[in-house]
C-alpha cells in the first residue's frame, strides 16, 4: 500500500462531543457527501443505509466505508475497510489521522479523521477500501465455487 501521509497540524475533533445529536448527524452527512463523491467512480459502489439511518458505501452489497457512528469514534470520522497489516502501518505512520478504538479493533477497518487527510489521500484510501472489499467478495465466492 502506498504511503498515505496526513495533513500536518490537524486538530482532533473530540472537543465537539457536546453537540446535539441532530447537529452531529448533519455534520456527519455533510462530510459523508464528500466521501460519496470521491467514491462515485469506483465500480459497483452504491450508497446504502445502516440500521441507524447513516449512509454507508457498499460494493455488491458488502460494506466498504461509512460514517463512524459508534460512541467511541470521534466526530467527522469515516470507517474504511482495510487489511489488518495495512491498518497497523497507517496507525504507526500517522496517528493524528488514523486511529482505532476498542470497539473497532476487532474489525478489518481503520478510522480516518476527515480533518487530517487531504482529498487525494482520502481518494486513495477509498480505492484501497474498494480493493480490499472486492478481494473479500472474491474469497467468499471461491469458497462456494
Describe this structure as you would to a colleague.
With 145 residues, the chain is of the alpha+beta class. It has a single domain (19-138), classed as Alpha-Beta Complex (Aspartate Aminotransferase, domain 1), CATH 3.90.1150. It has four helices and six strands. The protein has helices spanning 21-39, 84-93, 102-105, 119-144; strands spanning 45-49, 55-59, 62-67, 77-81, 98-99, 109-113. The chain has a six-stranded antiparallel beta sheet. The longest helix is centred in the C-terminal third of the chain and has 26 residues, at 119-144. It is globular.
Topology, element by element:
Blueprint: H1 21-39, E1 45-49, E2 55-59, E3 62-67, E4 77-81, H2 84-93, E5 98-99, H3 102-105, E6 109-113, H4 119-144
Antiparallel strand pairs: 1-2, 2-3, 3-4, 4-6, 5-6
Instruction: Give the percentage of residues in beta strands.
Output: 15-25%
Taking all Cα atoms into account, the compactness measure Rg is 15 Å
The string of secondary-structure elements, in order, is HEEEEHEHEH
- DSSP helix fraction: 40-55%
How many E-type strands? 6
List low-pLDDT spans: 5-24
Count of the domains: 1
Order the strands across the largest sheet as they lie in space: 1-2-3-4-6-5
CATH architecture classification name: Alpha-Beta Complex
Classification by helices and strands:
alpha+beta
Main sheet: strands, sense, barrel: 6 strands, antiparallel
CATH fold naming = Aspartate Aminotransferase, domain 1
Give the integer mean of the pLDDT values: 83
CATH class: Alpha Beta
Q: Give the number of helices.
A: 4
Q: Overall 3D geometry?
A: globular
End-to-end Cα distance, whole Å, is 29 Å
Amino acid at each position: 500500500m502506498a504511503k498515505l501521509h496526513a495533513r500536518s497540524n490537524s486538530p482532533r475533533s473530540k472537543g465537539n462531543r457536546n453537540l446535539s445529536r441532530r447537529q452531529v448527524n448533519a455534520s456527519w452527512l455533510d462530510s459523508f457527501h464528500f466521501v460519496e463523491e470521491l467514491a462515485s467512480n469506483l465500480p459497483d459502489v452504491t450508497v446504502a443505509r445502516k440500521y441507524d439511518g447513516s449512509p454507508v458505501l457498499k460494493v455488491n452489497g458488502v460494506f466498504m466505508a461509512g460514517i463512524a457512528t459508534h460512541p467511541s469514534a470521534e466526530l467527522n470520522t469515516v470507517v474504511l475497510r482495510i487489511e489488518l497489516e495495512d491498518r497497523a502501518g497507517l496507525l504507526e505512520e500517522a496517528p493524528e489521522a488514523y486511529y482505532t478504538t476498542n470497539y473497532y479493533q476487532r474489525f478489518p477497518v481503520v478510522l480516518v479523521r476527515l480533518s487530517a487527510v487531504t482529498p487525494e489521500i482520502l481518494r486513495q484510501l477509498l480505492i484501497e477500501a474498494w480493493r480490499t472489499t472486492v478481494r473479500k467478495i472474491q474469497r467468499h465466492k471461491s469458497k462456494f465455487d
